[in-house]
């Protein structure tokens, strides 16, 4: 079976969002263009890491260009996106591996999210070899979402993604674990329940 690549070059919209209540949210990346919508599920930590790395890469592009790159320092107000995910949110796959790159010629950020795949092997070396073969297989590899963004679109994505990650349950001021609405058993309070 040939690899399925969901390509958006450029997307009309590329956002991170959630479905569900804080503490039980499912995180998604969603790209849309010309009536076509692709949603892929991933972990909260993956969303946070992607947004942070995107900002770091954009800052490095600006630094290396001496400030001449078409990358804004902050999100332009006209492209900020706070709307919910487009419905229906149908998961195409769960993300395993992500990659970022900057295309200096076209001044575009490339985001790739590849489906999670279970590998089999008897040793660490066998698993590493199987993973390398899988990543190099352009024709028969796992499904992939590939999005090409302008510097402004990438900056807007990163800001929204960090806002979505931080919109969950607030952290406990003592132990930094998430606080539940029903209260919190804090390890720094020797297990005593703390009602808020």
Characterization of this structure:
With 196 residues, the chain is α+β, with helices and mostly antiparallel strands. 26% of the residues lie in helices and 29% in strands. The protein is built from three helices and nine strands; from the N terminus they run E-E-E-E-H-E-E-H-E-H-E-E. It has helices at residues 44-65, 124-136, 151-166, and strands spanning 5-8, 13-19, 26-33, 36-42, 91-103, 108-115, 144-149, 184-185, 193-194. The strands form two sheets. A seven-stranded mixed beta sheet has the order 1-7-6-5-4-3-2. A two-stranded antiparallel sheet has the order 8-9. Strand 2 (13-19) and strand 3 (26-33) form a beta hairpin. Helix 1 (44-65) runs antiparallel to helix 3 (151-166).
Please tally the β strands and state the result.
Answer: 9
Q: Please report the distance between the alpha carbons of the first and last residues.
A: 53 Å
Pairing-aware structural class of the strands and helices?
A: alpha+beta
For the report, how would you describe the main beta sheet? 7 strands, mixed
Order of helices and strands: EEEEHEEHEHEE
How much helicity do the residues have?
25-40%
- Rg over CA atoms, rounded to whole Å, is 19 Å
Brief sketch in words of this structure:
The protein is α+β, with helices and mostly antiparallel strands. The protein has helices at 44-65, 124-136, 151-166, and strands at residues 5-8, 13-19, 26-33, 36-42, 91-103, 108-115, 144-149, 184-185, 193-194.
């Amino acid at each position: 079976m040939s690899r399925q690549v969901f390509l958006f070059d450029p997307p009309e919209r590329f956002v991170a969002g959630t479905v569900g209540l804080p503490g039980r949210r499912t995180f998604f990346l969603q790209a849309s263009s010309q009536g076509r919508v692709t949603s892929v599920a991933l972990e909260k930590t993956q969303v946070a890491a992607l947004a942070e790395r995107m900002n770091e890469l954009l800052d490095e592009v600006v630094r290396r260009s001496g400030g001449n790159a078409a990358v804004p320092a902050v999100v332009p107000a006209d492209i900020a996106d706070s709307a919910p995910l487009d419905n229906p949110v149908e998961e195409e796959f769960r993300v395993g591996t992500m990659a970022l790159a900057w295309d200096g010629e076209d001044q575009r950020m490339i985001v790739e999210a590849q489906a999670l795949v279970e590998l089999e092997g008897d040793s660490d070396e066998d698993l590493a070899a199987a993973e390398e073969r899988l990543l190099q297989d352009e024709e028969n590899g796992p499904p992939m979402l590939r999005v090409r963004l302008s510097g402004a679109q990438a900056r807007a994505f990163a800001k929204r993604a960090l806002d979505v990650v931080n919109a969950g349950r607030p952290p406990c001021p003592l132990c930094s674990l998430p606080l539940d609405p029903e209260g919190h058993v804090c390890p720094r309070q020797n297990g005593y329940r703390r009602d808020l």
